[in-house]
Amino acid sequence: MNATPPRAAPMDQLLHLLDLSDAGGAQTDEYIFVGPGEANAVRPRLFGGQVLAQSLIAASRTVDADRLVHSMHGYFLRPGDAAAPITFGVERLRDGRSFTARRAHAYQGGKPILSMIASFQTPDEGLEHQEPMPGGVPDPETLPTAAQLLGAIDHPVAQSWAHDRPFDIRHVDPNIYFQAPGEHVAHQAVWMKALGTMPDDQSLHRAALAYASDYTLLEPVLRRHGISWATPGMSVASLDHAMWWHRPLRVDEWLLYVSDSPSASGARGLSRGRFYNRDGELVASVAQEGMVRLPEGTPGID
Q1: Catalytic residue, candidates 50, 214, 260, 285
Q2: Annotation marks residue 288 as catalytic
Q3: Out of 238, 259, 261, 285, which one is annotated catalytic?
Q4: What DSSP string describes the chain?
Q5: Span(s) in the chain for CATH 3.10.129.10
Q6: Is 60 a catalytic residue?
Q7: Catalytic pick from 119, 261, 271, 288?
Q8: Which CATH superfamily groups domain 7-123?
Q9: For residue 103, which of 13, 120, 227, 278 sits 20 to 30 Å off, Cα-Cα?
Q10: Is 3.20.20.150 the CATH classification of the domain at 144-302?
């Protein structure tokens, strides 16, 4: 009997996902890249953060190296197949003196699953201010890891959350993986850090942050109604995603991800998030609306 080959480390898997193949653009108006599906997927649907990150990498490949992404706005159009490769088409929209704009589509089966526009900028000087980092937050070293919380649970999703994610995610508030204890509030904070050292490539760090930003962003919507990820029959899907990068960052150093939900209605919930480094600098902001559908009779539905 052949032994099962060892699984790659989560960080190696992330770097592999972001290492797109250049397929050229000779036969189309788009620059074409190809990326792999999701490694070690336990669900058939592709993780949205992966498609965001890969699309940003594809777009950045067509931009001068001194221009970094500062904003992106994307729509998830169809569920992605985790087992299938993804084709990325990038269209040049504008190349200005300071700003560059690109449109990127992610395709599977000849149909777009994500449509995104991203803007890139050369370094510049100007006004400076930021919303301050919340105080009184415990250090990440004092909080349990997902592996410590979920590693002993005999369930494939729990095992994937515990061991397959390329980020160490530590909830400041009680986690809502399988239960939703505590007060029903529409805000939370988590610490995040990549499980390994990343190359000194700011474009790669920004794409990896887009990847990680999709993990917990809708949790304030669920937390507000005392609902956990394990709620039977619940269906949750990201609908759109907007992100702004304010300052240089490293995802292999701890970042505090503070998020809140100002509204939920019409089977949709809106969440906003802010990323701070340990020096208190606001390095990125994010917003997302997601579909949240629950069976009738589920607590939290009027």
Answers
A1: 214
A2: yes
A3: 238
A4: -PPPPPPPPHHHHHHHHT--EEEESTTSSSEEEEE---TT-SSSBPPHHHHHHHHHHHHHTTS-TT-EEEEEEEEE-S--BTTS-EEEEEEEEEE-SSEEEEEEEEEETTEEEEEEEEEEE---------PPPPSSPPPGGGS--HHHHHTT---HHHHHHHHT-SEEEEESSPP-SS---S---SEEEEEEEESSPPPS-HHHHHHHHHHHHTTTTTHHHHHHTT--TT-TT-EEEE-EEEEEE-S---TTS-EEEEEEEEEEETTEEEEEEEEEETT--EEEEEEEEEEEE--TT-TT--
A5: 7-123, 144-302
A6: no
A7: 288
A8: Hotdog Thioesterase (3.10.129.10)
A9: 13
A10: no
